[in-house]
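haha ok so turns out i had the wrong file open the whole time. this is the CORRECT one, sorry everyone. sequence first:
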Amino acid sequence: MSRLKNAGYLWAALLTPAVALAMLYNDGLSRSLAAATGVKISPRFSGGEITRTADHGRYLTRMHRPVFDGLTGERDEGFIQVEWEPIMPLPETLREELDIYGKGEKFLVVLNTLDGKVRYENAPRYVSGESRATPFRSGWAVRIGLKKAEGGGREDRPQ
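then structure:
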């Protein structure tokens, strides 16, 4: 009986690294395992769900939902992610008019695709100065910093 038990431990020790490697290098297996367990990627990592897509002919713009999610609840500061995916080569400057909450508070996001610099024109009070532009695949993603309304009011949250 002890030989059988020792053989079981040996098999477990030998197969553990193989299973770990299979998970790392088999994307389909890890996705199906994650889906079966109900594990979800954090919106702070993925950018949240896509709420709007605009087709500009040469490229697509995808706007995600505002993310204020935290580990134990909502945070006072968050972001919204905007992505530009090329259909043809992207122009040197991308200009996108955004109305994050659909309340007519439009502002312009300008991204220089050569150096990744981002600037805003007529940004509302809840847009913070922090933003990050990141190249991905052949496009760009920008995370625009957002602040909740003072006092935690709901006026700056999406409907």
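The first helix runs from residue 2 to 25.
again sry for the mixup
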